Amino acid sequence: MPPSLAVIVPAYNETAVLERFHGRLAAVFDGMDVNASVIYIDDGSADDTWAIIDRLAQTDPRVVGLRLSRNFGKEAAMTAGLDAVDADAVVVIDADLQDPPELIPDLVARLHEGNDVVYATRADRAGETRLKRFTSAAFYRLMERLSDNPMPRDTGDFRVLSRRAVAALRELRERQRFMKGLFAWIGYRQVSFRYHRDARVAGDTKWNYWRLTNLAIEGITSFSVAPLRMATWLGMSAAGVAFLYGLWVILKVLIWGDPVRGYPTLLVVILFMGGAQLMGLGIIGEYVGRTYAESKRRPLYYVEDRRGAGHPSPGHDSHGPGQA
Hints:
Helix content is 48%, strand content 17%.
């Protein structure tokens, strides 16, 4: 039997591009000597994404569809796909066609060279603004310095994983998930594959700057305690400066008899100290909040419906208890 290949595709409101993506992916499958399948995970879409997945599952036996009970986020959707696959090689790719599915054979070939993870590194990013490219590059380089397990630069979720890499990822059940960091954290033999990233073919990106900022905070706090150390050093530095300034004021009064003036200076010092304290409390709060979320041990997602590969067709009861 030829080796098996499964492709995981998280989808959220991808009506405009999903059928076009599947057409290109099916052509890739046809040209490969593998037992290929694709798992589409509908992450609580509000458009016709699930209807398209349902139709694809009825017309293509290689398609499996999972519909989550609500929008749990892309990280949870990818986890649902990793929990569901059973293949020798597993590819994670987005449906927006920025990552060309035609590169999958090249990634799989590198995997068969003895690697466990082959991640696609972006040589350039077509269709993105200079600000987006700058902030993305800055984030990856910041993570490289802060994290104990640095992530590869300019690398998204597009990659191929071996069976044992997928098994390792399944054991990581933390609730605050940052998959790019988890991919790097498991270790094993990982290599880069450089490619040119295309512009989005259709539809709108779901990642605005607010969501990207939250994802960056998630990544930093999930894989580094450097912000806590920075808050400690900031507090010590502020206390040291305040102490030295206080000594200087006392010496001026005792030696030269200068009156104690400087209300604006006093106000600036108070505001600086208050801001430093609030920033430190905010950093601590981020970590405490994540500890609180982990302690509740809620499931990562719930699967509302399934299609394809022997699962019921519309009109039958296909609601399960979900997975954690």
